Amino acid sequence: MLVTIKDDYESMSEQAAQIVAEQIRRKPDSVIGFATGSTPLGLYNELIRMHRETGLDFSKITTFNLDEYVGLPPEHDQGYHYFMWENLFKHINVDPRHVYIPDGMADDIDYFCEWYEEQMAEVRGLDLQILGIGANGHIAFNEPGSSLGSRTRIKTLTSKTVKDNARFFDDPEEVPKYAITMGIGTIMDARKLVLVASSEGKADAIQATLEGPITAMVPATIVQMHQQAHVVLDTEAASKLEYEHHEGIVERK
Ligand code: F6R
């Protein structure tokens, strides 16, 4: 596992964007997995800047998002379709025909999840998956206790997530209770993982993820089993790591 620790959120975002950009330059038709949440926003802004200023070309990439709420139409401003288009896709030259985001309005969710996995297989899998991490160690919507071998499926959101999300909805009935999420096994199939984490609120989860035992109770710990995982942190997220770090870069084999 490669761990890079940067001084602040901006340089963490730039470093992660460099990794994504290198992947796309090396293989213009890369298949890239995207995450939502606040952490990758800086990375997405940097990709947009690279597109505008250096001509980084996204026209041949295919994208797969990690997750989406069930029951929200694509135009809903709390949904992840909206998030991805607003914060990245509409600012770069991605081909909309090559954008895959789970369909939270699918009539048959189980069928949809199988189809989503098939689409990933059809393009020979993901070259690179971007990941954030929850304070409890979740990745995508794989909360503690999720099977480490799981595939794309519907998950019930924790009562805490439902409660936290309630503030974004006028009608409590509208707050999603389920989500479609790639499984941990799906994520592990990506040929490269780039996990970004920033701020002290993530320090315990990062310490457990990098230095603790692999356990379904901290789903992100599974990245220890990945052959090409690059974890990019700011100093606050790295503040509880116990191992020594050299010039901000630690390589663990
Ligand atoms: C979203 C996702 C989530 C977030 C995680 C961290 O697609 O995969 O697991 O990465 O909840 O969210 P932030 O970055 O908002 O702290």
Protein described:
The chain is α/β, with parallel strands linked by helices. It has one domain: Rossmann fold (3-Layer(aba) Sandwich). 30% of the residues lie in helices and 17% in strands. It has 7 helices and 11 strands. The strands form 2 sheets. The protein has an 8-stranded mixed sheet, with helices on one face. A 3-stranded antiparallel sheet has the order 4-8-7, with helices on one face. The chain starts with a strand and ends with a strand. Fructose -6-phosphate binds at residues 35-39, 66-67, 132-134, 138-140.
Envelope shape: globular
Beta-strand content bin: 15-25%
The CATH topology turns out to be Rossmann fold
Q: Output the number of helix runs.
A: 7
SS-based structural class?
Answer: alpha/beta
Give me the count of strands: 11
- Total domain count: 1
**Residues in helices, as a percent range:** 25-40%
Average pLDDT metric? 95
Instruction: For the record, give the distance between the C-alpha atoms at the N and C termini, rounded to a whole number.
Output: 6 Å
Name the strands of the widest sheet in spatial order. Answer: 5-3-2-6-9-10-1-11
Task: Output the radius of gyration.
Answer: 17 Å
